[in-house]
């Protein structure tokens, strides 16, 4: 069912959110059967792209990462995705009463996971880690993620659309802060605990 919903949320999100609302997932199921797969897409893609093809800003002078240093970086990024999704879902669950929502943490986790699906899938662009290409793909995925959020909140949270708009905006703010936090943490880790070593392209 998860794969069906994942494809449906990309092609006909409005009707798919209603179908997802009728499903009942446990937290364990979501993490082990959904997030575990989705989070692996950008982590594995970036690992392959940066070690086999190499990183480039404009398409010249590709620089490859050493496999030994890329492995811990990929693993850390993989579990950072788990933490990010869990934190955003917790924030949604914490804020929902303010906007008239009254759903379980599991439903907040479902909303977060399916909303973030385009961002996870955009991780496939990491197989060809050229900066401009990844930025374009990432921006397109982010725009569609925002669209899914604004469409999905009133359905999953069962609140009027006027409140849902402001709730979605609050969730978006939290999500962007988490994204910036992940980027900042990644830079810090790369310079200290998980230093990256490069090989000639």
Please describe the topology of this protein.
Elements: H1 2-11, H2 13-22, H3 27-53, E1 63-65, H4 67-95, H5 105-115, H6 117-121, H7 131-156, H8 161-191, E2 198-200
Antiparallel strand pairs: 1-2
Helix pairs in contact: 1-2, 2-7, 3-4, 3-5, 4-5, 4-8, 5-7, 7-8
Describe it.
- This protein is an all-alpha fold and 201 residues long.
- It has one domain (24-200).
- The protein contains 8 helices and 2 strands.
- The protein has helices at residues 2-11, 13-22, 27-53, 67-95, 105-115, 117-121, 131-156, 161-191, and strands at 63-65, 198-200.
- Strands 1-2 form a two-stranded antiparallel sheet.
- The mean pLDDT is 87.
Top keywords for this entry?
elongated, 201 residues, two-stranded antiparallel ribbon, 8 helices, mainly alpha
Order of helices and strands: HHHEHHHHHE
Mean pLDDT: 87
Helix content: over 70%
- Tell me about the largest β-sheet: 2 strands, antiparallel
How much of the residues is beta strand, in percent? under 5%
The parts where pLDDT drops under 50 for at least 5 residues are: none
**Count of discrete structural domains:** 1
Strand order of the largest sheet: 1-2
Distance between the termini: 42 Å
Q: What form results from the Cα inertia axes? A: elongated
